[in-house]
Amino acid sequence: MDDTLSDLFAVIEDRKETLPEGSYTASLFTHEKGENAVLEKLGEETTELVLAAKDDDHEEVAYEAADIVYHLLVLLSMKDMSLEDLEAELEARR
Ligand SMILES: N=c1c2ncn([C@@H]3O[C@H](COP(=O)(O)OP(=O)(O)OP(=O)(O)O)[C@@H](O)[C@H]3O)c2ncn1[C@@H]1O[C@H](COP(=O)(O)O)[C@@H](O)[C@H]1O
């Protein structure tokens, strides 16, 4: 899981840097979509996650959770934060 998250975060950071055409991630870092789109997605996906959990739909819970994690990592990158910031907070709670 650690590798999956850090690999995904590295891809997101690369998309932010290189802004390749056709990249959904890159579109979030431009005015095409921007921060509001990321925040809206996080809100929508959280609602969808709650509904999937209420239905006990494990496949849908995993799908929505993955959408949330991806957009959360994009948000961290937008704020010039890193996975280490998240890890430090989690570690501090142990
Ligand atoms: N993990 C993800 C990921 N999760 C979700 N999404 C996108 O987030 C959007 C989620 O929105 P919805 O579920 O609401 O789907 P939608 O109805 O198509 O929404 P709209 O974008 O049309 O508004 C979709 O366009 C998904 O493709 C993701 N896009 C990219 N990644 C990862 O980022 C990498 C780089 O992607 P690109 O930047 O597109 O090359 C990929 O290889 C993946 O590993």
CATH superfamily: MazG-like
Number of strands: 0
Number of domain modules: 1
CATH topology: Helix Hairpins
Ligands (ions, cofactors included): phosphoribosyl ATP
Q: Beta-strand level of the residues, as a percent range?
A: under 5%
Structural class: mainly alpha
The unreliable regions are none
Please compute the radius of gyration using only Cα atoms: 14 Å
CATH architectural designation: Orthogonal Bundle
Distance between the termini: 19 Å
Main sheet summary: none
Give, in order, the helices and strands.
HHHHH
Mean pLDDT over the residues: 96
Q: Tell me the helix content.
A: over 70%
- In DSSP terms (H or I, runs of 4 or more residues), the helix count works out at 5
Q: What best-fitting shape do the alpha-carbon axes yield?
A: globular
GO molecular function: ATP binding; phosphoribosyl-ATP diphosphatase activity
Organism: Natrarchaeobaculum aegyptiacum
EC number: 3.6.1.31
Keywords: Amino-acid biosynthesis, ATP-binding, Cytoplasm, Histidine biosynthesis, Hydrolase, Nucleotide-binding
Topology:
Layout: H1 2-18, H2 24-28, H3 34-54, H4 58-78, H5 83-92
The structure holds phosphoribosyl ATP.
InterPro entries: HisE, PRib-ATP_PPHydrolase-like
GO molecular function, one term: ATP binding
Subcellular location: Cytoplasm
Word description of this protein:
This protein is an all-alpha fold and 94 residues long. The protein has a single domain, classed as MazG-like (Helix Hairpins, Orthogonal Bundle), CATH 1.10.287. Helices cover 79% and strands 0% of the residues. Helix 3 packs antiparallel against helix 4 (58-78). It starts with a helix and ends with a helix. 11% of the residues are buried. The mean pLDDT is 96. Phosphoribosyl ATP is lined by residues 8, 11, 15, 23-26, 41, 67, 70.
